[in-house]
Task: structure prediction
Amino acid sequence: MLNEKLVAAINDQIQFEYYSAFVYKAMQAYFEDEDLPGMANWMNIQFQEEMAHAEKMFNFVCDAGARVELKALDAPNNEYSSPLEVFEESLSHERQVTARINNLMDLAQQEKNHAAQIFLQWFVTEQVEEEASVNLIITKLKRIKDDGRGLMMIDQELASRTFTPIAAE
Ligand code: FEO
Result:
């Protein structure tokens, strides 16, 4: 059901989703160290979401009778100078993911693989939400500038984020 090109490209994205999880775990570590537990929580949920994205793709490749191959992960960035910098890096990371998902969709269309296109549609929609939620946080952080009370309020708000497992299809 998946040709070699698609298996290789999806394997590559599985790797990138695990790398994304790693990136967000490093961001969580920064916020834990900064005593911003709400932002740390938000990053931990993001970590879980990335693991779920990788898992969803992993299962798709296995269900198609193809082989998943994992490689070593690059080290994520561990150095940040402000919450705004972290969320800006998150947005730039998500834009990279969106471009990669769009490329995957292009390939699935070129290969006329309808099952892969339907499968990837979920990720196309998910990326719109991923970018929007980070964008909103960046807007709020820019609005408060260096106001400590504002930062604590955003931190409290992000503490309420919970992980929702991806619904089984
Ligand atoms: Fe798996 Fe944040 O994209």
Notes: The chain has one domain: 4-159. The two ends are 18 Å apart (CA to CA). The mean pLDDT is 97. The first helix runs from residue 4 to 33.
